[in-house]
């Protein structure tokens, strides 16, 4: 029983970070109607920024959120403005042009990082990386708890932004119907740039928060791109609440998989869930909750 | 037969005499690999370029073909050449199942589903050690020491693949495939069962990719899950071959295959040893830049945008009507 609770706790804490990854992907998917296959690679860039700040300037990973998020916001906005938006004007046979473009972007980001840092595994070892707190007999990894709390705060901030501010409402309007939003005077192109930037900043936060307990190497991005779309499909495409539920769900499922099946197959758990959702519940959890 | 032009015969003839004229095993090897990629790229193009279902998972079929051949030796104790008979059909059957699952989804979501299935296959092949030998891979003994038999086999496969796709695309099925790509709902409304024809397209595509995989096993004599089920080196490479050559054109993927393999080899050998060694690490970076360049400026690939490219080089100004077709 204790093992089960411990597993669930670990899963939920991880789920908070996954929710951030999924939210970024969902925002981009909702507004641009494309799947961002460079999502994990953006996260990887944020992780390397955090690593460099820690390694060279001894800045605590949580403070480097203030650098990694804006930096990735700019990188995301740049990608959208100069690489993805121009494609809307190009005709081609395949409508998936933008998706293929994100694959190319992901490759370039990975290779540039590999060029600079080589393929070695790196990690950030802070004083609190391995410290744990106890509640009864259940242990909580301190940095996971902090990461979870920051993730919740950021998610709350995002919801406030989307629900209460004018710009946030424009983002939602563009996601619902781009043409109608254009007619209402929304600068849709600017909104797409903003959204991609926001999505990149959210996944950057996830990367930075994960770093004290994770390790990094240039190919780590691909793994998180996969997770990001498992979460998005699980949550119902384009639903923000769904992305959070999907993220937590994946966190728990992976944690259970690692405890009860095998550590090596915990990555496969998400993919199997993904296929099961496709077969038995197309539309994801959104179908069940109607949110 | 009348639509097969003389230029095709010339190319075929040149390729047929190539290994007799060029004695170097190195160049023969590069051409064998290029011909194998012609098969994979053309198969990918049938499903993705002509039928519009962009697959990010062709490594599944390639890997299944390769493993079918390899397992013939390790599990059944028969020659891996039986894989050339079994690899295609096995890939086709698995393609049928994957289609049943993934064709519920459209567009980018289909692409995602194929990545997920591909990763599952890779993980299973890695973890199911009793059956597949896991990360250790499968090692067999090559039948021929000379490259020439392999060369002609690869050439035969490539020719058969291109000819089959040409035939299919000129039949009623081909028109159905194009109709589904252009507008699935309209095609459905006209009574075309999109599921059925997408599955047919996938089956043909999987069959040839599986054959290419079985060929790879026999030729390279070694496979492991990280290579044959690789997302980057097989699935994405197949897409690159397709888009750089030109999606939805018969000669696009073959052109793309030769360009990609030559480029890969040029960079891997650091311009045949003429440039410093770090250049050899840049080949994936160059692929990435190439993807961005091609998608941005030549959306229909080298063959699809041939008219446009010729105009740039001949220095003439583009007339308004030119360059917009595909």
TrEMBL record, chain A:
InterPro entries: ABC_transp_permease (IPR001851), BCAA_transport_permease (IPR052157). It is a multi-pass membrane protein. GO terms for cellular component: plasma membrane. The lineage of its organism: Bacteria, Pseudomonadati, Thermodesulfobacteriota, Syntrophobacteria, Syntrophobacterales. This is Inner-membrane translocator. It is found in: Cell membrane. Pfam families: BPD_transp_2. GO terms for molecular function: transmembrane transporter activity. GO terms for biological process: amino acid transport. Keywords: Amino-acid transport, Cell membrane, Membrane, Transmembrane, Transmembrane helix, Transport.
UniProtKB/TrEMBL annotation, chain B:
This is Inner-membrane translocator. The chain crosses the membrane at residues 29-47, 59-76, 82-103, 150-169, 200-219, 231-251, 282-299. It comes from the Bacteria. Keywords: Cell membrane, Membrane, Transmembrane, Transmembrane helix. It is found in: Cell membrane. GO terms for cellular component: plasma membrane. Its main location: membrane. PANTHER family: HIGH-AFFINITY BRANCHED-CHAIN AMINO ACID TRANSPORT PROTEIN BRAE (PTHR30482:SF10), HIGH-AFFINITY BRANCHED-CHAIN AMINO ACID TRANSPORT SYSTEM PERMEASE (PTHR30482). It is a multi-pass membrane protein. The keyword Lipid biosynthesis does not apply. It comes from Syntrophobacter fumaroxidans (strain DSM 10017 / MPOB). InterPro entries: ABC_transp_permease, LivM-like, NarG-like_sf. CDD domains: TM_PBP1_LivM_like (cd06581). GO terms for molecular function: branched-chain amino acid transmembrane transporter activity.
